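User: Sequence recovery, please. Input:
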């Protein structure tokens, strides 16, 4: 593929392009009239795609310091004109997202001057343009004639030596001569429905993937050239996709019938046919061999091979947990298994026990030669979800680092004398990209691109679900007892903020390097406890002043204090004390998959006391009066209640509900509200603590909820009206044109 020279002042997004030198906006080559101030706003956003540009910075750029104008009104007017020029919608934006009281962000994919289109991502070092003059000085003819004749034998020896030197020189030339760079050329949007997606596979003509539709994961398909998404009928409610047969005749499907339980494996004939269960295997990853006769799958950390009908199962390897060089008694969790095109090697991701970090590993198809791929490279990243190009020359994978997901390419080593190749970055925002799959001709890489965005909704008994707090992009709202302050997790950066309930006096309480969730106010409104994790650590419990300052980690050592909440007197914190190294075989890092207990942490003495009989429970919720404690069973199918006075547990609900999420006490302490995730009857329910009376408060059918680390969030407003976060992420599949040596 030959590269083209691009005008470095041109920035493209969608059908639009901006000429920074001519100060023009064009759509499909046609100039669009745009006034100076809206144009300057557009340039400001394109200079920092995917980042928040606050209103104060825009004000300084548009108006001198001594200008007297209603800045808010004028800025809103200029942004409105810009949106009109781009045919953009503030409620469902494609390009310009409004962040309530903070600023704006450009969320569309950008190609051009500021980012990647036509720009080499890894420039080779130039060779010297000329040799030194002394090396190029010719030998004079008289001097050459004076050299005595050597024997024929010595001449032959010199000839052999010269040949060896020549071969070595050629080898070194191959080693150091720069090759054409790997680079991205441009994007094509394939899907247009905005839903949560993943697990892409292709038969060359169509893409198959799983997609979230109305609280259920369905199998779906779309033309590789783009078009409408069509559901692929499957015999179960929640579907995961493992692989596609090499001849495109069948999909490997997982029946995701329960959260945190390894799914049953099925084969679904294409384009139509009756699905069949494949043996009794329940893997967390599976793939076809290149000839389609075998399936390699993983159960936890153990890797097996079987015939494609599920028979003749035998173990071939175990991921031994030495991911970062620290031995573990439990192996890592294997995901994303793929064969090399020649069928000789297997690559997969291993999740380190006790953390969310993933690393790439490789072995021969018989399980020998197990070793970590790219050891020591980019230690702050998690690597996963890789696929080879069909010619086997490149391995394309997802790299998650510093809160961003991008796609990278690892060239395969071609010669024994070649250096070990280094990965090359293929995408660089502003969207987050993952689940990369090369097209069969190798000219495109299909991937999921997303800009995470949540919209707050409140349930009104008369109107149904309506926008709340201006539809702010946030989750995990927690209100102070006086109802005047709110703490929340901002999307898409998962940072912790607090503000007054009207949005005034906002303050960021955590750094951008910390993912946060589950904040809760202390009874006196002075502190906030929450969960946080970095790229390389599991979630841990922290407490911070409501006025900002240093974070204090509550539980030190290997154990994790999960889902913390305050006791009614504010002197202690209730939490689930779990052991990450006890993650069960199917590999979840949630507390429901780990050994643990509910404990009380005394903040004054830093002592921990376990609640009796709480070994199978987590997510404690003390009532406002402190007289009762609600919790979830380990598999989230029941709510239970602990009475400190009698030291006894009792059931609040009975199955079947499906997984229960986010139990929350009403402010008067009479009811516990909760939601049902992925169940047959998704909704918000409440149960009265006094007599166990159960009521359905609101239906969640048709509400596509935002999926965070611990599932879709729900909560209560100060008046006890239910709150959820709708997913407005506009997640789509894109086809990336690229070139490589």
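Assistant: Recovered sequence (741 residues):
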């Amino acid at each position: 593929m030959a590269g083209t020279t691009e005008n470095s002042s041109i920035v493209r997004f969608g059908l639009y392009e901006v000429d920074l030198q001519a100060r023009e906006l064009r759509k499909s080559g046609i100039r669009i009239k745009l006034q100076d101030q809206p144009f300057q706003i557009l340039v400001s956003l394109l200079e920092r795609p995917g980042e928040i540009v606050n209103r104060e910075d825009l004000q300084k750029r548009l108006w001198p310091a001594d200008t007297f104008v209603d800045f808010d009104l004028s800025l809103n007017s200029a942004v409105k004109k810009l949106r009109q020029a781009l045919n953009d919608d503030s409620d469902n934006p494609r390009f310009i997202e409004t962040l309530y009281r903070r600023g704006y962000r450009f969320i569309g994919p950008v190609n051009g001057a500021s980012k990647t289109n036509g720009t080499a991502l890894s420039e080779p070092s130039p060779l010297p343009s000329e040799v030194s003059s002394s090396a190029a000085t010719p030998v004079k003819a008289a001097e050459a004639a004076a050299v005595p004749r050597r024997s024929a034998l010595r001449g032959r020896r010199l000839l052999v030596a010269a040949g060896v030197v020549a071969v070595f020189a050629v080898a070194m030339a191959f080693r150091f001569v720069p090759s054409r760079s790997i680079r991205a050329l441009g994007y094509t949007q394939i899907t247009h429905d905005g839903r949560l997606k993943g697990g892409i596979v292709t038969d060359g003509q169509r893409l198959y993937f799983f997609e979230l539709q109305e609280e259920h994961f369905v199998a779906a398909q779309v033309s590789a050239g783009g078009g409408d998404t069509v559901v692929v009928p499957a015999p179960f409610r929640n579907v995961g996709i493992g692989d596609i047969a090499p001849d495109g005749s069948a999909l490997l499907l997982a029946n995701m019938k329960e959260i945190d339980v390894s799914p049953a494996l099925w084969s679904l004939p294409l384009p139509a046919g009756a699905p069949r269960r494949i043996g009794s295997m329940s893997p967390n990853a599976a793939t076809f061999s290149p000839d389609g006769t075998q399936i390699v799958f993983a159960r936890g950390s153990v890797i097996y091979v079987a015939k494609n009908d599920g028979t003749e199962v035998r173990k071939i390897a175990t991921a031994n947990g030495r991911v970062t060089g620290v031995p573990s008694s439990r192996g890592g969790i294997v995901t994303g298994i793929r064969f090399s095109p020649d069928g000789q090697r297997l690559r997969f991701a291993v999740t380190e026990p006790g953390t969310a970090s993933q690393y790439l590993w490789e072995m021969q198809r018989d399980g020998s030669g197990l070793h970590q791929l790219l050891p020591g490279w980019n230690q702050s990243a998690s690597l996963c979800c890789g696929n080879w190009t069909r010619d086997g020359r490149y391995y394309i994978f997802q790299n998650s680092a510093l809160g961003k997901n991008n796609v990278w390419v690892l060239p395969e080593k071609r010669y024994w004398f070649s250096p070990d190749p280094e990965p090359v970055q293929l995408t660089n925002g502003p969207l987050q990209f993952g689940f990369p799959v090369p097209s069969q001709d190798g000219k495109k890489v299909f991937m999921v691109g997303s800009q995470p965005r949540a919209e707050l909704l409140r349930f009104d008994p008369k109107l149904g679900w309506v926008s709340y707090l201006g539809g702010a992009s946030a989750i995990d709202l927690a209100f102070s007892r006086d109802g005047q302050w709110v703490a929340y997790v901002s999307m898409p950066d998962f940072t912790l903020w607090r503000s007054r309930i009207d949005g005034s006096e906002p303050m960021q309480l955590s750094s951008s390097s910390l993912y946060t969730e589950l904040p809760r106010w202390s009874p006196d409104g002075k502190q906030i406890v929450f969960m946080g994790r970095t790229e390389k650590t599991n979630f841990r419990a922290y407490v911070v002043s409501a006025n900002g300052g240093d974070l204090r980690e509550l539980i030190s050592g290997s154990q994790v204090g999960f889902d913390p909440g305050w006791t009614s007197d504010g002197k202690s914190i209730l939490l689930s004390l779990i052991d990450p190294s006890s993650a069960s075989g199917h590999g979840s890092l949630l507390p429901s998959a780990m050994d643990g207990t509910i404990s009380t942490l005394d903040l004054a003495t830093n002592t921990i006391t376990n609640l009796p009989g709480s070994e199978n429970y987590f997510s404690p919720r003390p009532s406002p009066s402190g007289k009762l404690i609600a919790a979830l069973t380990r598999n989230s199918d029941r709510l239970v209640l602990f009475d400190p006075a009698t030291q006894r547990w009792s059931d609040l609900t009975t199955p079947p509900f499906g997984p229960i999420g986010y139990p929350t006490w009403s402010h008067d302490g009479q009811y516990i509200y909760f939601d049902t995730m992925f169940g047959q009857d998704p909704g918000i329910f409440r149960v009265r603590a006094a007599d166990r009376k159960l009521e359905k408060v609101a239906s969640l059918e048709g509400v596509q909820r935002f999926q965070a680390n611990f599932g879709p969030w729900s909560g209560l407003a100060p008046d006890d009206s239910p709150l959820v976060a709708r997913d407005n992420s506009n997640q789509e599949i894109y086809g990336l044109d690229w070139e490589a040596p």
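The longest helix spans residues 152-176.
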